[in-house]
Amino acid sequence: MPSSQLHRSRGSEVDSLDLAILGHLLSNGRMAFKELAKATGSDQRTVASRFQRLLKVGVIKSTTIEVDWSKVGLTATAIIGGRTSTGEDSRRKLLEFIRKESRIIEAYTAIGTHEYLMKVVDKDIATLRNEMTMELEPLTSDVGSSVIVERIKNPDFKGLLKYARSKFTSKNETTV
Prior knowledge:
The protein is of the alpha+beta class. It has two domains: about 5-65, Orthogonal Bundle (Arc Repressor Mutant, subunit A); about 70-145, Alpha-Beta Plaits (2-Layer Sandwich), CATH 3.30.70. About 40% of the residues lie in helices and about 20% in strands. It contains six helices and six strands. Strands 4-5-3-6 form a four-stranded antiparallel sheet. The two termini are about 15 Å apart.
């Protein structure tokens, strides 16, 4: 596979320069295009246009910060899962609740023990139990929750990028 086209997915092509840009941004998300150009051996305009393209095609989903919510007073984090109650109306109400509730910071539909999973943040465990799970109970069945005590691994997106690079580059190509 030529280095100019390492992977194609749903209309987007990612090459070695794109992967190099992603790698540097995963290490330092605030890196300026000028620094990225120097680090990748490219020019600033190329890096800027590549970044915009990666945003447009959805490879880069967002540029954001990570907040430690416990330091602003939201000390309880939990994963809540369950199944919707019987009927399409219950499912619609549940999904509407999930989308509107600001304490639910991530939510997924799933295949397995739970039909949906949510990551929830609240002031404390009692508030989480008394407010969040009580509001969910009429909309769900088999609600279960696990309070997160400690993160044992931070997201390793750079490691994941290295894995992806190993899967989509040829053995003869120099990795970036």
